[in-house]
Specification:
Elements: H1 11-36, H2 41-44, H3 50-61, H4 65-68, H5 74-91, H6 93-102, H7 106-112, H8 115-121, E1 130-133, E2 160-165, E3 168-175, E4 187-194, E5 203-209, E6 215-220, E7 232-242, E8 246-248, H9 250-289, E9 291-292, E10 295-296, H10 301-328, H11 335-359, H12 371-381, H13 388-396
Parallel strand pairs: 1-4, 2-4
Antiparallel strand pairs: 2-3, 3-7, 4-5, 5-8, 6-7, 9-10
Bound molecules: flavin-adenine dinucleotide.
Length: 399
Amino acid sequence: MTQVNEAGLGADALEVLKVVERFARDEVRPVGMQLDALADPDEVIAAGSPLWTLHDKYRALGVDSLSLAGSFEPAEQAMLSARITETLGWADGGLAVSLAVAGFPKFFIALTGDPKLTERYLSADSSEIGCWAITEPDHGSDSLAFSEPHWTRPEVRPNCIARLDGDEWVINGSKAAWVSNAPVATYAALFCTIDGDEGFAGGGVCITPLDLPGVSRGKNLNKLGQRALPQGELHFDDVRVPAANMVIGKPMYSMTVEMTLALANAFMGSTFAGLARAAYEAALEYAKDRVQGGVPIIQHQNVRSRLFKMFAKVEAAASLSRRTMLIGNAGPPPIHYSIASKTYCTTTAFEVASEALQIFGGNGLTKEYPIEKIMRDARAAMIEDGCNEMLSLVGGSKL
Ligand SMILES: Cc1cc2nc3c(=O)[nH]c(=O)nc-3n(C[C@H](O)[C@H](O)[C@H](O)COP(=O)(O)OP(=O)(O)OC[C@H]3O[C@@H](n4cnc5c(N)ncnc54)[C@H](O)[C@@H]3O)c2cc1C
């Protein structure tokens, strides 16, 4: 991935980025292509699948936000996180999400400082894989749109309820098949509803081990794009969790959904700014190689001008996503910035991938070339972490 170096990263950070670039090019991209080609999504998570070793290798790199914290000034860390995330997205959108989500619940554990949770999940040799379980079978947009009127309505009944019984929470219900990493996760940041009549506003975040009695999983989802990212339902049948695991309670829940969405959407912006670049680069390379009318097609004015428009969009996406991360200063940015980044960068990734496919002509439609996969992966992102239309309503509520 050839990029102009810009201010913001010192020598140490650039060294970290180089390591990530090698990992992205040599490990993530080939594994993503291999997993995407599997007809049965169960094979993606089967014993011996390269998905498992990829997670191990990524953990060993120690380049997630929590591991990097304290090594750099916040602004430099924010820029480094943006560049690392773009680089992983450039390699494979779905795997970039899988690797990032695996460590996501750690943020909540780090906030609580609970000794038992810290020992199990934050120790250096922990090989736990996490997931963020918020979407429910009957509630997709509902579960994220905290700015909308349904949020506090008691008659909107959530699907996953926690009830306090002595010093344990008892959890019943389901989370939707869309939970990223659910088929492989060992624990979840479970965004559930605490028994009561406050609707979604009366929720909590419960660190829920997924090896407890009463936890079961649904089928591994078979989908159009991001096929390397495992997704599937989680079911809870009288699952008992220690009271201390409810790390966020009702009073802080709405604010926590906002902060979490702000962080997740900022990372989505960077991931898909990276994937947009991958699509553009593939088209550029092809256009220099493919000869029509006796010359490489890039020499036809119309093709050159189309490539230039793609280049401008890719650079705009990179600028917005990096600026958003910088505004967050290594924390969650204000949510309307994160949503602007997520919606713009995912739309850009899809538009650029679609235009890139057109530049490939018929070849673009075949699995011999990388672009149809990139387009499918980008398409999923316009729904992932909130449909772009609904996110725009939430972002708009902050203007
Ligand atoms: C690749 C991928 C990864 C994902 N990862 C996770 C994950 O890790 N964890 C997790 O919990 N979930 C995850 N999701 C779920 C994702 O967040 C939801 O799919 C998303 O919130 C939309 O919900 P839905 O699919 O039920 O669509 P619905 O909410 O049913 O929406 C259907 C349509 O109605 C529109 N709509 C809905 N409500 C409104 C409204 N109030 N105003 C205007 N329009 C509206 C939407 O824009 C959309 O076009 C993932 C999804 C995908 C595709």
